# Entry
Amino acid sequence: MHYINIMIKLLAETPGDQDMIDKILRAFDQLRKRLEDKNREHEEYKKRHPATVGIKNGKSYEIRDGAAHENTPSISQDDPASMPWRRSPGAQDGHKGHFRKTPKITERITIHAKGYTCPICYSCLVRRGIRHRTVEDIPEIMPDVIEYRIERMYCKHCRIMVEPDVTEALPSSRLSIRAMLIIAYFRTGMRMSVENVSRMMKEVFGIHVSEGEIQNILSQLSNALGDEYTRLLDSIRESSYRHMDSTSWRIDGDNYNLWTFVTRCEAIFVISKSNGHEVPLEILGKHNGTDIHDRH
# Structure
């Protein structure tokens, strides 16, 4: 303040600078008022938040028993007891526990004792009940080779042979629908290469499927499920609301995008090179309802 008065006095002795002096005084008054307001707000804040109260990770906590003094013990990340705001590990009080359900027992095997003497001291052993242990196993997989004997009928009027369909396999396919769906799941759902799918089918299931046959199986499934896919797509287009999102998807080392379009009862997936808004517009068309997405 003393230096400001000296500066104003020197400027006042200079003719023609009174306007500058007035501007400096007004600016100084404004700064002084702002400082007073900040000091007042700070005093009010200290009244509302004593030194024994703080906020850590968005949660308030209180330091009790004189811990706010200089001899306050240091807070250690390795000691949860020194951090009262930190949640204790494990399930919290009142929360319902979630456990892995024990699977249903499909077979019971009793293992009898191999001897009646201790293997260490060779003393006599005494029976003390039975201990239960559950082990989940995968049965040995052997492919079923099924021969269908299909009765054929002849129409003399139409001069054609009539026979029932084999519902477990697609026409002219040597693999069942279940086996074909497993191949499609490995290739698409698990993102396995064609080479690895062929190897998996041979080593795990004992079925030899060439790489070319895998591509043919995927085409067969695509054609067989085409009508169902169209039905789902039409239902999604007509829905009052649709959820949509995309994620990165690599195919043989190349970058693509996997789009999903979901309603309450339907869901379809589309793989495209583009990640822009033109993909849902092309697939779903214009919509008068509500579209839920992240506007990426």
